[in-house]
Amino acid sequence: MPAPSFWIGVVSQDHVEAAVAGGFAQVNHGKAGPLERMHAGDGFAFYSPRTAHPAGAALQAFTAIGRVRDG
User: Fold this and answer.
1) N or C: which end of the chain has fewer CB within 10 A?
2) Are 65 and 44 in contact, with CB atoms under 8 Å apart?
């Protein structure tokens, strides 16, 4: 089993909250490529430059952290 990788997604806070509530990760406006490189056990964090996309208030904070599950 390969060593886990660790990822940072830059996503507005409102999109992070929707992903956390739904139990999924979303980056790059729904493009699958970046997510397909993730594997079970990998860690990830979401950094939110703004509260909402595209013109929410500046936030510049990490807003979620998690691990990739199987399936």
Assistant:
1) C
2) yes
% of the chain exceeding 70 in pLDDT: 97
If you count them, how many residues does the chain have? Answer: 71
CB proximity list for 54: less than 8 A, separation 6 or greater:
12
pLDDT tens readout for residues 37-65? 899 999 999 999 999 999 999 999 999 99
The pTM for the full model equals 0.86
Is residue 6 a contact partner of residue 43, using CB atoms and an 8 Å limit?
A: yes
